[in-house]
Amino acid sequence: MIVDLTRRDLVNVAPAVWLATILGSSAARAASPPVPGELYRLDDEAKILAAAKAMFAEDRTATLVTVDAHGVPRVRPVGVKPPGDDLVFWIGTRRTSRKVAQIQANSNATLHFNFDDFANGYKDAFYVSFMGKATAHTDAETLSVNRPGEAVRKQLWPNFPDDFAAIRFEPRWLELYGKGVDAHEVNWQPQGLMLPAKA
After folding, report:
1. Which terminal CB of the chain, N or C, has fewer other CB atoms within 10 Å?
2. What 3-state class would DSSP assign to 157?
3. Which of 62, 59, 38, 29 has its CA nearest to residue 171?
């Protein structure tokens, strides 16, 4: 069947078709978990991992990025409990916070640490971004292990444990620059590595 479209038809229909195509492809991307592209590497994994650990040891306030119901990244600073050797990070928050609802709907998240060293001409600047999965926990066992200190608890969670949630962030891969780890000379792509899945 041949349809004869006028120029007016094309002007009226084309934007709708274009928008539907964009939204459809966005929905498909949102449904599948993100997969890192080819990670750039100059240095060995041990050096990159050591640099990452040095970075988050210096910067206890990280930036947590989650995705809201409209597919928009939402960004906020968070205090982070120092991870163990497993590189699992824990973050305390209110049960009613938007980040909890966003994580429950979409577990894809990023945890970012940085130091710009602007005052020193960026000489010792660094950043590390961990990409992975976040989950929110309110069960008694998890909260007993990941409870905040008493002073902070009284200030931020006066009804602990009823107003407290512990966010577990498990990184799947990381990318970083600084602490002796250089980016690509031409396109500035940071070096990165995959992290082993946790049990």
Report:
1. N
2. coil
3. 62
What values do phi and psi take at 85, rounded to 5?
Answer: -65, -20
Please say whether the beta carbons of 92 and 79 come within 8 A: yes
As a whole number of angstroms, the distance between CA 77 and CA 180 comes to 26
Measure the CA–CA gap between 140 and 36, rounded to whole angstroms.
35
CA 97 to CA 20: how far, in whole Å? Answer: 32
Beta pairing partners, 106: none
Closest CA to 63 of 75, 71, 54, 51: 75
Question: What is the pTM assigned to this prediction?
Answer: 0.80
Handedness of CA 9, 12, 18, 24 (dihedral sign): negative
Confidence at residue 195, expressed as pLDDT on a 0 to 100 scale: 92
Residue segments in the chain with a per-residue pLDDT below the cut of 50: 1-32
Q: Quote the CA–CA distance of 91 and 82 in Å, as a whole number.
A: 10
Return d(Cα 199, Cα 68) in angstroms, integer: 28
